[in-house]
Amino acid sequence: MKSLRHFPFSWVCRAVPLFAVLALLWPEFARAGYSIKAPLADGFDQAVGKPDAKGYYIFRGFWPNGHLGEDWNGNGGGDTDMGDPVYAIADGVVVFSDDYKRRWGNVVIVRHAYREKNGSTVFVDSLYGHLDKRQVRMYQVVKRGQQIGTIGNCHGVYAAHLHLEIRKNLKIGMNRSAFAKDYSNYYSPRSFIAEHRSMSGRGETVSIPVDSFGATNPDEPRESGTEPPPNVAKNAPKVNIPTRMTPKANPEEDRRKDLNEQLRLLAEENKKKTESIKDEDMDGFWSKLKNKLGKK
Known about the structure:
Blueprint: H1 2-5, H2 9-31, E1 34-39, H3 49-53, E2 56-60, E3 70-74, E4 85-87, E5 92-99, E6 106-115, E7 121-134, E8 141-142, E9 147-151, E10 162-167, E11 186-187, H4 189-195, E12 205-209, E13 232-234, H5 251-275, H6 279-295
Antiparallel strand pairs: 1-12, 1-13, 2-3, 3-10, 4-9, 5-6, 5-8, 6-7, 7-9, 7-10, 10-11
């Protein structure tokens, strides 16, 4: 009993709560260092009608502090594109795949790595929302143009379409409200894809960080069986995940490029409409106009 008098009960009382807290937080600490070896993207294509979105149009475009992505519809309108294939816009790793509900429905997020002209490696996330079906799982390596799901309507909430986002910030995940809704965190998808159709990097691989937004999504649902598979390296090599893994944002330049791209697309659309008008159609138009004026 004498020996118990010298036992450090006070130290144990302080240490037990500390160990309990560490035990609860350990899964999140352990996940923070995961990375997966995957190919560098050698270019980006459209997510529907690959590679150039043939048969589809943008019903609702991107604008900062408003709609943070693009809504792609089939040319037939309505639900005519329901169940159409959705493709990964580039090589990458699936970092989210779940039915998130909350007016999102089935969502897939793919993380891509690509090489800038100055040699730096940059990471971006592409989000595919309102899917009818998901055909990929967490941590799966996907190829450019690989089908990852099908167009849906968010369980009947909307008319069928694909909601596509491209993010600079790797921590957003499904918690958009916690981050600025502007060019500091998002790209205009069509502008980004137009500028990155073809790049160097074919055959190269890089460690892509995963599980970067778990802490910012406390209620993030996860499918069972999504613990990292054997191809996931834990803390090897060490990959830090800053808020943004891209060069310093230039909002004015991004806006200018996006406006130029919208003007280019508008000019192309008007050109197609003009080319589709036949001479005989114009002759008929002038005849009708002449008759109408003659009656007056």
